[in-house]
Amino acid sequence: MAYIDYYSILGIPKTASESDIKKAYRKLARKYHPDLNPNDKVSEKKFKEINEANEVLSHKENRKKYDEYGEHWQNAEAYEKAKQQQGAYQQNYKGASGGYSEEDFSDFFGNMFGGRASGSGGRQVKFRGQDFNAELQLDLKDVYEAHKRTLTVNNKNIRITIPAGIENGQTIKIKGHGGAGVNGGPNGDLFIQFSVVNNTKFKRDKDNLYVTVDLDLYKAMLGGELMVDTFKGKVKLNIKPETENGTQVKLKGKGFPKYKKEDQFGDLYITYQIKIPTNLSEKEKTLIEELQKLR
Amino acid sequence: METQKLIPIQLICNRYNVPVSFINTLQEFQLVEIIVENEDYYIHTKQIKEVEKMIRLHYDLEINLEGVDAIYNLLKQVKSLKQEITMLHNRLRLYEDL
């Protein structure tokens, strides 16, 4: 069990007055408050430490015990005393961004002062529970069609439908699946941010797809047919005679599904990259030279 | 607007133990929109989360309303910039392997 120096967490000397503690806490709480640092895990951790330090040091009796036993808190007598006082401790911070669980606090704090009791005194406020944030990594292929997934959040299984066409970095909200409300307030929400990994040859820009395909020189010059891959199967393309390198064609509706718009798709843009034949035979060289003379 | 989606201001103030003047001041700063129906004052449920946040900033962190206003608007800008960064990252991927 680690000894935590609450004074250094708040950046104050051991001789600090009550008002110094309050001032230091306010200053740091403003800096690291979850409302001011959304989705910042480091700030959230720091804020919990600051709260823990403040809750001990701003409470006269607790501060006295902490000062007295310090790192030798494991002393049995002190432990027994602390046990007897379980429940006496009253939390003075009320739910900045929802209820933090007991695991959020150090073992030291839990054993010494008997854990956190529900808030009382001061403003009796019902707060929404903490919003939870989760990240889910999916392949681009996974998000081509809507599908269901089961996620485990805080030991609870949640089955969600992931709509087709979700974008990398997009966040969806699952209402009521965040932390439990404080003092009977409603539960927070679960925010899932999607990280869409593209392992395909297609490039995606919103609901449009882009791909480069090889086109042989003769087909480019004379025209013909070419089978190309789309995200969902192959299509046959007619190549116009005298197609230039870098020509882009659009296949309407062959792109990615539009988010939450059923049966609507973006377009697929195909860029032709003309492949020059290599390892020419003597005969080929002669024929090409003849062609050159004709130009 | 559906009435179920409106919450009387008095109810919010009782629940969060804040004076009605606090909500009125938030409106003066254009941080919330107050809806009047049949001479009763309401706010929309979608604003509750933001109001809670402002209550915490004001009462728990002792930030005055000018500060809350500044923070609220800066957070909005941060959110919008983060979204723009994500969108630009996605677009950049198009050219990365070229």
Automatic annotation (TrEMBL), chain A:
Source species of the chain: Mariniflexile fucanivorans
Keywords tagged on the record: Chaperone, DNA-binding, Metal-binding, Repeat, Zinc, Zinc-finger
PROSITE patterns per UniProt: DNAJ_2
Single GO biological process annotation from the record: protein refolding
Pfam families listed in its UniProt record: DnaJ, DnaJ_C
J domain mapped to chain residues: 5-70
SMART domains linked to this entry: DnaJ
One term under GO cellular component: cytoplasm
A GO molecular function held by the record: zinc ion binding
Protein name: Curved DNA-binding protein
Lineage top rank: taxon: Bacteria
UniProtKB/TrEMBL annotation, chain B:
Classification via Pfam families: MerR_2 (PF13591)
Protein name: MerR-like DNA binding protein
